[in-house]
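User: I'm curious whether this sequence folds into something compact or stays loose and floppy. Could you predict its structure so I can see for myself?
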Amino acid sequence: MKAFKGYFAKDALWIKLLLVLFFLLIGMVVGSALSLPINTGNEVRDILYGQFVTSIFTFVVSALLIAYLVKNDDENFFQDNRFPSFSMLIYGVCFLIFLMPLVELTTFWNEKLVLPDFLHKLETTIRSLEDEAMEITAMIINRKGEYALLSNVFFLALVPAISEEIFFRGTLQQIFHKHCSSGVSIWVTAIIFSAFHFQFYGFVPRVLLGAMLGYLFYYGRSIYLPILIHFCNNAMAVIVGSIIGFDSTTQQMPGIDTTALYSSVLFSFPIVIVIFLAMRREFRLREKNDEN
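Assistant: Here's the prediction. I'll summarize afterward.
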């Protein structure tokens, strides 16, 4: 097995991307196959257990195998050897908080998108599939029980945060970064990250979230930072949805005044820019200190 370590490290980007696609598909097939026999007699529990198994094989196992084959010995793809600084943690939390109005506004715009008439059948199919997915999500989040909220936070917030960040930021973004600029690698990975969720009417806001996580990974120089912020974002949606009820007809939580989002964005977006610049400044200072 050692003979294959870093075997594709010097190959072209397209070869590495084919490798990513290959292991991603293998992971999906194996994960799906292993989740099929799960039958606890509880529909929601079966769905959550199945998603857990599929996520582990699709993202974590495939990411570890890909990293083993494409990284050099001196590279730390996942950047898991250090925890983010306290200031970066604060930047990350503030980044998420002040980006949310823009995310909510783009969600509102994205949901109102209407495809041309000649794509009407495609639009109907997409909306039908997404409505089914939202109904399942609503069924899980709105369920009641002694440990319902705790299990929802684990399966819907923690597991996706860890598995998806290891794959998308820790592996895919690193592969792109070896061949492209940091900005290109972050945004391309964010687009792929959003596309992989197969939610057309939530595509744009998820690209924004993916880009935020990508910058946190790059400037924070630690996989733990995007994992933490990804978890906070997911957990916030799960907890709020459990408390006030999750509406399966929209990707937004009930009670949100979309008209007020415009003024919120005008207030919060300049703060996002300031946070981004502060993160970049600290990153550059740390790079200079490392060189010295």
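Summary: The chain has a mean pLDDT of 88. Residues 1-75 form one domain.
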